[in-house]
Design brief:
Layout (H helix, E strand, L loop, with lengths): L2 H23 L3 H16 L3
Helix pairs in contact: 1-2
């Protein structure tokens, strides 16, 4: 994976983690589960 792609993926992971923290703090449990799935998919793309 090229560095720009890797950096973009890392940024996406950090963004998802922030969104998950927000959803959890506001009791948005369905949204949290959706974000967890998206985070898992992003992590699986890491080489």
């Amino acid at each position: 994976m090229a560095l720009p792609q890797r950096d973009k993926l890392i940024d996406e992971i950090h963004r998802l983690e922030g969104l998950m923290a927000y959803a959890e703090s506001h009791g948005e449990w369905e949204r949290l589960e959706e974000l967890k799935a998206r985070l898992k998919a992003a992590i699986d793309r890491m080489p």
